[in-house]
Amino acid sequence: MSRGAFITLEGIEGAGKSTVAQWLGEWLGAHGLIVRLTREPGGTELAERVRRIVLERGREQVSAQAETLLMFAARAIHLDNLIRPALAAGEWVLSDRFTDATRAYQGGGRGVDPQWIDTLAAHVHADLVPTCTLLLDLPVALGLQRARARRGETDRFEAETEAFFERIRAAYLSLARCEPHRFRIIDASAPVAAVREQVAAALAPWLESSRGASR
Ligand code: TMP
User: Fold this and answer.
1) Mutation pick for ligand 1 pocket among 135, 157, 169 (CB with most ligand atoms within 8 Å)
2) How does pLDDT run along the chain (215 residues), one tens digit per residue?
3) Which of 14, 107, 155, 202 has CB 3.0 to 4.6 Å from 55, enough for a Cys bridge?
4) What is the rounded CA–CA span in Å between residue 109 and residue 130?
């Protein structure tokens, strides 16, 4: 059985994560790997219900703490029902966002205590750190322009200010600097073909070691 890997995609709105995830899933599949494409918040039926709750713009106030806990509630469900079983079966799990999104959005964007986020992460998935995290980085103005051009109604996050997304981008870049072995920064402002090339180059070492394990 080949060894699975847990790949996460991160970035601000409009970075093109979903498009890259779709393409990457097919590319890895073409290399003979079994790939599970998923996302956060969500990924399972129940976690997708939590996603709707946390993204909708309702009348009630949702504090940054409540938002953080909802993200981790969805994550715990996602881990138990999809991520861990898929990895145990030797699959490659490709998740559009994971805990770094909580660090960047709730920590960097909303000012939630990073130590509290790390404590929650340690309780929910002490056993699991992504094999590789692809940070799709681009200027905030460009990301928001792309995101707003393709969406109709905005959710609670998309309705935020440019300054909020600047803090998130800075938080992501700082996380990447702190863990250079896990993170790969991808220039997401580049043309699609160039983005794909960067992603393929970033994952080549893991692809190679997974093949080695199955030989
Ligand atoms: P999406 O844009 O990738 O579909 O994600 C939905 C929103 O959820 C996005 O604005 C980022 C936000 N989010 C957080 O704020 N914290 C998290 O932990 C996750 C996973 C997502």
Assistant:
1) 157
2) 567 899 999 999 999 999 999 999 999 999 999 999 999 999 999 999 999 999 999 899 999 999 999 999 999 999 999 999 999 999 999 999 999 999 999 999 999 999 999 999 999 999 899 999 999 999 999 999 999 887 778 888 888 999 999 999 999 999 999 999 999 999 999 999 999 999 999 999 888 877 666 65
3) 155
4) 22
